[in-house]
């Protein structure tokens, strides 16, 4: 069967027919491959199709994506990954169904992108305080943004915002002066998460643009506010790592604007507005999920420092959020 698929594979000049022979062979061989059994003919068919996809130019990739009603935006590497993921998913879908493994890892992903106090040239001992607490909720089943949370936070250590910080974030002195302290805002953020039944009825996890939000900003802020670091925020998805590993791009291509542009999108809103940043990060996450990425948890907080989570680690959602507790 595998040899037939190789013979029947058409020239690269005809991207419209790349998957035809494999689809015919699927009807001849209804049994599903075992997980990890890469000697199965199905995987050989996938390898053949992947080889053909690798030889296609950007125009041919876009034509094939259009035929399959996939998004045609993005650079060549993105389009190539999109086609490969689509085809692999189609070929292996019946295997997952046979094993009863059709569930997703999470029901929701909560995107967080804090804004914090800053100077144009931060001294080494500068303490960043969170001044905007935004969250954007993605429904994994519908692949849509379904809700959001945002509150400004009153800084205590550096109550006067620098001119640089105001210009960068768009957050004015009046906004933070009228806001409540971090402890109160965190309480309301937890209540918002609890209302969504996250960690109780639904599986969820957090997602950030880099390691700083949880590993630096939240950790520092909890210490400043004499609050125990919340258990529900100890593990998260660093989308920069996920993007780099999924699309096989260099680290320099994982800045927010670069990721958007490579996916054929533009930034929507005001850069360094925490809520707008969170929404744009969510757009990237949704795009990656549509392209076949699984978006696994890949970072955690260990002894006050962000650490990588190995891919072999068991998949688990964040625990149910609890009311923040004061440090002893």
UniProtKB/TrEMBL annotation:
EC assignment: 3.1.13.1
SMART domains associated with the record: EXOIII, SAP
Catalytic activity: Exonucleolytic cleavage in the 3'- to 5'-direction to yield nucleoside 5'-phosphates
GO annotations of cellular component type: cytoplasm; nucleolus
CDD domains noted in UniProt: ERI-1_3'hExo_like
GO MF, one annotated term: RNA binding
Region (Disordered): 306-328
Alphabetized InterPro entries for the sequence: 3-5_Exoribonuclease, ERI-1_3'hExo-like, Ribonucl_H, RNaseH-like_sf, RNaseH_sf, SAP_dom, SAP_dom_sf
UniProt GO BP: regulatory ncRNA-mediated gene silencing; rRNA processing
Protein name: 3'-5' exoribonuclease 1
Keyword terms, alphabetized: Cytoplasm, Exonuclease, Hydrolase, Magnesium, Metal-binding, Nuclease, Nucleus, Phosphoprotein, RNA-binding, RNA-mediated gene silencing, rRNA processing
Main EC class the enzyme belongs to: hydrolase
Residue ranges of every copy of the SAP domain listed in the record: 53-87
Localization (cell): Cytoplasm; Nucleus, Nucleolus
Classification of source organism: Eukaryota, Metazoa, Chordata, Craniata, Vertebrata
Cofactors (names): Mg(2+)
